[in-house]
Design brief:
mainly alpha
Length: about 190
Amino acid sequence: MSDVSTDPTPTALLLAWGRGDKSAFDRLIPLVHHELHRLARRYMAGERTGHTLQTSALVNEAYLRLIDITQVDWHDRTHFFAMAARTMRRILVDSARARGNQRRGGDIARVSLDDALVAATDRHQDLVVLDEALARFQTVHPRQAHVVELRFFGGLTLEETGRALDISVDTVKRDWRFAKLWLLRELRESR
């Protein structure tokens, strides 16, 4: 393992952070800041106009939650971005649930998945409905649910998803197709 002071790559810093070096996180953030903002912008593009969270606020909230993660065996930057995507998803779903509780479902739209869709882009999508369907899916198909989370919410490519899950690209493709069909059926039945 190279010394983080001479090799400040995201992976080296993640490994140091995972070993308990709290300063490694502070050095990691400037290296991944732009990519986290891109990920947050992708998420925010799927939110309704006038959402209370702004892109920078989403990134900052994700930072706060990520820094509290302990005992993670970080593998590489793809693993970090997968965790960041999951964290941002949780923040937005929690926010959507709070909005739904306040409005009692007054502005909820259904979510559909499309073969070409990698990240949420429709302003009227309801993350809560998708999150609930994904939770049901995860109970019976955990790996495939993780593929959806990385591809749909995290915007990872087929190759990045395969690396993050340590599976082949062909397996990712099969899991992605199966998951989309299963989730589409669930979303149609919940209408």
